[in-house]
Amino acid sequence: MSDRDDAARVAIAKVDGVFEAAAMTELWDTALRAPGWDRSPVWFHGDFHTGNLLTADGRLSAVIDFGGLGIGDPACDMVIAFTLMSAGSRAVFRDALGVDDATWLRGRGWALATGLNAHTSYAAVNPRVAAQTTRQINQALIG
């Protein structure tokens, strides 16, 4: 995540007034300070959000876009919890996967950073992206 630090801080400054800059900065700083992944590397999707989920008959049928696939820290895949789930669903998701506090916090940081990136790039021209990223950023702040 540290490689996204400069871009995240620039984006936070750009959206100050739309979102609370102090809260975003606090979350970002805390996520950057969270202990890193200290277990065996695991596979991660790397871009796991609602736009990469396909459904049929109201059920998940496929996950697409494996361009970010990698091995390492799974925190980046926690973004799905902040793009798709309610606070209650997030709690069930986190418990079912046994996500530790540090990974969850880094996941919130990933959700904030990726939400900010998409929001500052596309929200002005795409109302759907504006709504999705507004929700993602707010849910990351809520936790």
UniProtKB/TrEMBL annotation:
Residues 19-110 form the Aminoglycoside phosphotransferase domain. InterPro entries: Aminoglycoside_PTrfase, Kinase-like_dom_sf. This is Aminoglycoside phosphotransferase domain-containing protein. It comes from Streptomyces alanosinicus. The lineage of its organism: Bacteria, Bacillati, Actinomycetota, Actinomycetes, Kitasatosporales.
